[in-house]
Amino acid sequence: MLKCKEVVEKADALVDGMPLSWRERLAMRLHLIMCHHCRRYIRQLNALVTSLPHEPQPLDDEQTKRILKKIDSPGN
Amino acid sequence: MDIDAPKFVARLQRGDNTAFAQLVQHQHNYLLATARSMLSHADAEEAVQDAWIAIHRAIGKFEGRSQLRTWLTRIVINQARMMLRKQGREIQFDPTSEEDPLAHRFREGGHWQDGPRQWDLGGPDALLTRDELRHCMARCLERMPENQRLVLELRDLQGMDFDAICNMLDISASNVRVLLHRARARLFELVDHFQETGEC
């Protein structure tokens, strides 16, 4: 029987969609049926990871020009 | 914008200035975020600017063996590492020195002593959409060890795959997984604490 600490360590692999062996999947499933803390941990970890901001804003034209100017400056 | 589209890559390789300007416009902030996870704000700006000069010189030789953003990120990481070395510093990617941030939440037998709180994830005031919590998360990221912050940045904020991260940082998949777990566990702890107290 898996311990909660082990489930928490494997939870990242679940969130990342990494393949688990059938033995690991079975052990996780049995544990999660019985442990509401670990079910909650995995559900909330997933929500946390998917809510992190993914796409930074592109630069505006002025900022882009400023960087290009430095690349073109003599000596580079 | 798909920077890996073959036509766009071919324009860059031919030295097309318009394509290069588009590349800078769309990728600068990704690269800056990577550099900021390793350096101070001012040093990160300088490292990315130096990286753009190196990229401009080398783009004609880009062979497409990795995704373009992976190639760009690798150049920025090398610049940042060079800058750190000049300052007599280096990022260690061996995660053995630090304890799991959730370790204190478990009993000796490995079961929860202090289980996670129920987070408010639904509705317009949902926990993860609150500005106060976003400020707390930004502070938590600033205080995070650089090795964890960098792996979190590359994987969870920029969506890079594990193999690319391992190759780029020259570390094993298991070390990437441990560092990512610890970074996420820190954020989990923060949100859990915020749910309970309304404070960072």
TrEMBL record, chain A:
Residues 53-76 are annotated as: Disordered. Residues 4-39 form the Putative zinc-finger domain. It comes from the Bacteria. Pfam families: zf-HC2. Residues 62-76 have a biased composition (Basic and acidic residues). InterPro entries: Anti_sigma_zinc_sf, Znf_put. This is Zf-HC2 domain-containing protein. It comes from Alcanivorax profundi. The lineage of its organism: Bacteria, Pseudomonadati, Pseudomonadota, Gammaproteobacteria, Oceanospirillales.
TrEMBL record, chain B:
Residues 135-187 form the RNA polymerase sigma factor 70 region 4 type domain. One of its GO terms (molecular function) is sigma factor activity. Keywords: Sigma factor, Transcription, Transcription regulation. SUPFAM superfamilies: Sigma2 domain of RNA polymerase sigma factors, Sigma3 and sigma4 domains of RNA polymerase sigma factors. Residues 23-89 form the RNA polymerase sigma-70 region domain. One of its GO terms (biological process) is DNA-templated transcription initiation. It comes from the Bacteria. Belongs to the sigma-70 factor family. ECF subfamily. InterPro entries: RNA_pol_sigma-70-like (IPR039425), RNA_pol_sigma-70_dom (IPR014284), RNA_pol_sigma70_r2 (IPR007627), RNA_pol_sigma70_r4_t2 (IPR013249), RNA_pol_sigma_r2 (IPR013325), RNA_pol_sigma_r3/r4-like (IPR013324), WH-like_DNA-bd_sf (IPR036388). This is Sigma-70 family RNA polymerase sigma factor. It holds the Pfam family Sigma70_r4_2.
